[in-house]
Write a structure and sequence with these properties.
The complex is a heterodimer of chains A (about 55) and B (about 400). By secondary structure, chain A is an alpha+beta fold. Chain A is about 20% helix and about 20% strand. In chain A, the strands form 2 sheets. Chain A has a two-stranded antiparallel ribbon with strand order 1-4. In chain A, strands 2-3 form a two-stranded antiparallel ribbon. With about 400 residues, chain B is an alpha/beta fold. Chain B is about 35% helix and about 25% strand. The chains are: A alpha+beta (about 55), B alpha/beta (about 400).
Amino acid sequence: MKIIHEFCDICGTCVAVCPVDAITVTEFKVEIDNEICTNCLNCLKVCPAKAIVECE
Amino acid sequence: MMVKDRYDIVVIGAGPAGSVAARYAAENGASVLMLERDRESGIPVRCAEGVSHNGIAPFIDIDKRWIASQIDIAKLTSPNGESALMHNNGVGYVLERRIFDTALCELAAKHGARLITKANALDLIKENNKITGVKYRYMGKTCEVKCNIVIAADGTESRVGRWAGINTTVALRDIDTCVQYTLAGLDIKRDTCEFYFGNEVSPGGYVWIFPKSDSTANVGIGIAGHLSHEKGPKEYLDEFVARRFPDATITYTMYGGVPTAATLKEIVKDNFMIVGDAARQVNPITGGGIVQGMIAGSIAGKVAAEAVKKGTFDAKFLKKYRKEWDKTLGNTQKVMHNMKEKFLFMTDERFNNLVSFCKKIPSDKFSLKSLFTEAVKGDPKLMLDVAKSFVVSKIKLK
């Protein structure tokens, strides 16, 4: 998965639904570790800012 | 400010749940350090800011500095546009969270707790599988602080619970995906908060208007996570705002998620407790989490201080917090979660009937109990649970 940082509000909603703890949040940035990510798409579905897309 | 390298208790997150936990732990004799990721507690605001007077009064003296408006009336509007007014659910407030959260931190500090802002927790320190402290990032440096108990209060986006081995993942249907605008240039009633329901308006959730003055309000939406598709919360909210407030100016846009689950199965481990949004201690019907978090924080803080006095930090002792929580609000939350499941499948017709029913009750006789009881009509078991939960909450929240 990929974060569009221009859209991301760093709200962390994606972290709550990630079943494998692949997402980290700091004060300034959300990041998804694609090594851990299982492509379940939970984060993409729940993101209120539509800031998450699938990697090409 | 001097920061020691060892405290009895480290609290991660200085929102209402964390700062109340810190305050009660410190008040009862423990040494406490709070770590806050952001530059200030309370910002960025991710909250509709509504609370009841009775909910917060036990924890802090009411102060005009953090009250935007006082709410006396709730107005419910059904999909067909019919409205019902509720008068007698006690006084409510729309807060200024930025000031409120800071006031709670100051209260914790007054009782002896320490706070570091811009301190981002990185991991728990474990020795022989035992939690013995927290590793955090501060001003470009990785620091360590040792302690006997870690209290995780790191919000919806909690990761600390996972580090302790607790499964904190919520199902899509058990989280509301939310957008809120603070709008200016409105002509509204300052004493009335409004709620709009319906599958076209806000599937699996509701739209709220919480006035902050006669001309400004938090106007937001939460929709159930599994019902958010191409048309997400922002699209629904924009439609609502275009209809209701076409000339308003947006002065603040915020996004966020609200857990609408039951409390986590596990909220304690050896040397570890988790409170507030992080523990999913949120009312699944209203999405309210401030008072729930403060109540959980107060219980956890007291139990943690007791543990420090006794020198016993295992899960077996800390479970006292779980027991107290379930008695106070946890069991009620479970019933509310079952009710929320009902709401998820409610047709617009049912919403219309519900509001018509509410209209027939004189507004000063109206209560949440009568609304909820009507809402679960036809499900005797749930009706009984709802009735019981209101008896319990009346005793506990007096």
